[in-house]
């Protein structure tokens, strides 16, 4: 928390200093009550001038308390707004620099909790906790000091029941930090299972597996409930008993009973007893505020730890002496890559093992292989979504680790199968990689991607917000993504075959857009359907993270092996699909 709160520490200290003035002013009404009682009960005529002076001083004290309290919270609330903005920018910036592998082993629920919930949990800590804790501690001290000024016995009587509550609370809070960490871990687990269930709900409902699919959420919720009730149950019973020591009837009884003894003994005046009793009645409220601040600080401590952990995640290192590629050829040499171990798995998964590959400038290279063979992993090393454990990936003779990120992404672009459009205008989505592009450039890219006419049909054309006025189909989203890549105009392109799940009409338009996109570029394409890459200059076959064959389509089919078997399976599936279409047409 010290690390996170450092940017606003000066302003929180200023808020506490202002609150000290408000706390001092809080005691003025109690002093006024005692002095007013003495004046009214004094023998002889009432001094009306003194009465009105006391009333004026009390009014000024109340106004000062309200003014300084307002100023203190205003300072800390503005500090909180600044801190939250800074933290969210830092987290977003951090997420943009983390390797892709980090996201594959971190649930979106955990990321959302850090960005939204954890940052929000710091609000009370910054905007309220220090000021309110200062008020809760200092105001009673000022008030008690006045009780001791009246008579030391009245001061002790005012706090007679507090030590008993303090002992009970200390027992309740003995392991609260560890328990809060367990509770937070349980909430994060529940959040992750909710995100997982919602993301796949359409699939599980289709296959009638809803009950089984949400079992992980139910189990996580049950586990959290058991832990929470096991911890909080005994605490609630103890708190119910200990709260009696702070109850107004008991405090009033103790002070009046003891005060009667003091008055009867001639130690104090009745009006002094009234003042000290009023002060004793407000002390529990202050103590409860302190205990709430302690509890909230412990919650915020867990949130702060998670934010610090996220901000401390290792990033892809950048070089201090960046180099620029000379040319657009790609050389992948002796590359090994292992995904880090995940929760419950002691060893990482080796995805690539000694991969060697060359992509001449202007060539089209296709990666094929069974699921899990390492195709996507190898392709994402080129735009440096991750770094190999050993070996190198070079562009124009320069290792990608020696190229500044801004320079790298001017050379390497990518169109992924899972398209992500931002909730901004269609125009801004297309020129994401080239923010300074003119409207004419944007229009030209959209025409080349066969999406221009569809955009013009939107309510506000290119200014329509995606997800609000613009609702694209999967094939249309792909064409927007292709327009984005065309506008970026990178000489090297990584393409995750965009037509794998497109309908026939969209597929034809996407294929035409891709033909425009790949012309004259160095292209590495991840192939899902072999029929789309038979014209590739080089087809690289991966199996188990190793290159088991490469060459032209004709050469690989003639050589037999993995590719020949995949091609035979593809042809058989295509034939069955054609026959099914023919039967459906015949029935019609």
Automatic annotation (TrEMBL):
The lineage of its organism: Bacteria, Bacillati, Actinomycetota, Actinomycetes, Mycobacteriales. Residues 330-569 form the ABC transporter domain. This is ABC transporter ATP-binding protein. Pfam families: ABC_membrane, ABC_tran. Gene3D superfamilies: ABC transporter type 1, transmembrane domain, P-loop containing nucleotide triphosphate hydrolases. Residues 20-299 form the ABC transmembrane type-1 domain. The chain crosses the membrane at residues 12-31, 51-73, 122-146, 152-173, 244-263, 275-294. Its main location: membrane. It is a multi-pass membrane protein. One of its GO terms (molecular function) is ATP binding. Keywords: ATP-binding, Cell inner membrane, Cell membrane, Membrane, Nucleotide-binding, Translocase, Transmembrane, Transmembrane helix. It comes from the Bacteria. Belongs to the ABC transporter superfamily. Siderophore-Fe(3+) uptake transporter (SIUT) (TC 3.A.1.21) family. It is found in: Cell inner membrane.
């Amino acid at each position: 928390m010290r690390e996170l709160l450092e940017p606003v520490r000066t302003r929180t200290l200023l808020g506490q200093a202002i609150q000290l003035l408000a706390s001092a002013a809080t005691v003025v009404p109690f002093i006024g009550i005692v002095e007013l009682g003495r004046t009214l009960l004094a023998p002889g005529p009432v001094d009306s001038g003194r009465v009105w002076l006391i009333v004026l001083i009390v009014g000024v004290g109340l106004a000062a308390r309200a003014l300084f309290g307002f100023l203190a919270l205003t300072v800390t609330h503005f500090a909180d707004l600044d801190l939250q903005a800074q933290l969210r920018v830092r987290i977003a910036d951090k997420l943009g620099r983390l390797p892709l592998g980090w996201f594959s082993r971190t649930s979106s629920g955990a990321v959302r909790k850090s960005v939204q919930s954890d940052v929000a949990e710091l609000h009370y800590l910054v905007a309220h906790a220090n000021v309110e804790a200062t008020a809760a501690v200092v105001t009673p001290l000022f008030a008690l000091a006045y009780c001791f000024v009246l008579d030391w016995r009245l001061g002790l009587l005012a706090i007679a029941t507090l030590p008993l509550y303090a002992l009970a609370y200390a027992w309740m809070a003995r392991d609260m930090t560890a328990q809060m960490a367990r509770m937070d871990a349980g909430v994060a687990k529940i959040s992750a299972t909710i995100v997982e269930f919602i993301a796949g709900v359409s699939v599980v409902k289709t296959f009638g597996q809803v009950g089984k699919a949400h079992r992980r959420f139910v189990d996580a919720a049950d586990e959290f409930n058991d832990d929470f009730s096991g911890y909080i149950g005994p605490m609630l019973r103890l708190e119910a008993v200990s709260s009696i020591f702070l109850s107004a009837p008991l405090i009033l009884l103790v002070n009046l009973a003891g005060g009667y003894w003091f008055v009867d003994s001639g130690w104090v005046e009745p009006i002094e007893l009234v003042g000290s009793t009023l002060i004793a009645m407000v002390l529990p409220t202050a103590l409860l505020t302190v205990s709430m601040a302690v509890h909230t600080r412990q919650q915020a401590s867990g949130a702060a730890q998670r934010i610090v952990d996220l901000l401390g995640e290792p990033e892809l290192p950048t070089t201090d002496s960046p180099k620029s590629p000379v040319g657009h050829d790609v050389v992948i040499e002796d590359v090994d890559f292992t995904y880090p171990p995940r929760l419950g798995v002691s060893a990482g998964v080796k995805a690539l093992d000694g991969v060697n590959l060359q992509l001449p400038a202007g060539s089209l290279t296709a990666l094929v292989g069974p699921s899990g063979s390492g195709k996507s992993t190898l392709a994402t090393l080129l735009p440096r979504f991750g770094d190999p454990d050993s070996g190198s990936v070079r562009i124009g003779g320069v290792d990608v680790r020696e190229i500044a990120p801004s320079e790298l992404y001017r050379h390497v672009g990518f169109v992924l199968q899972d398209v992500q459009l931002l909730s901004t205008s269609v125009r801004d989505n297309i020129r994401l990689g080239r923010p300074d592009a003119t409207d004419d450039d944007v229009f030209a890219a959209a025409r080349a991607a066969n999406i221009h006419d569809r955009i013009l049909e939107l309510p506000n054309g290119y200014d329509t917000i995606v997800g609000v006025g613009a609702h694209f189909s999967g094939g249309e989203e792909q064409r927007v993504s292709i327009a984005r890549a065309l506008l970026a105009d990178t000489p090297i392109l990584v393409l995750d075959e965009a037509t794998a799940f497109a309908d026939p009409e969209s597929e034809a338009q996407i294929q035409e857009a891709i033909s425009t996109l790949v012309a004259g570029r160095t292209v590495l394409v991840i192939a899902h359907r072999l029929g789309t890459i038979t014209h590739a200059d080089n087809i690289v076959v991966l199996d188990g993270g190793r290159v088991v064959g490469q060459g032209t389509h004709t050469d690989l089919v003639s050589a037999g092996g993995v590719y020949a078997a995949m091609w035979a399976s593809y042809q058989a599936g295509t034939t069955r699909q054609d026959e099914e279409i023919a039967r459906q047409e015949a029935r019609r």
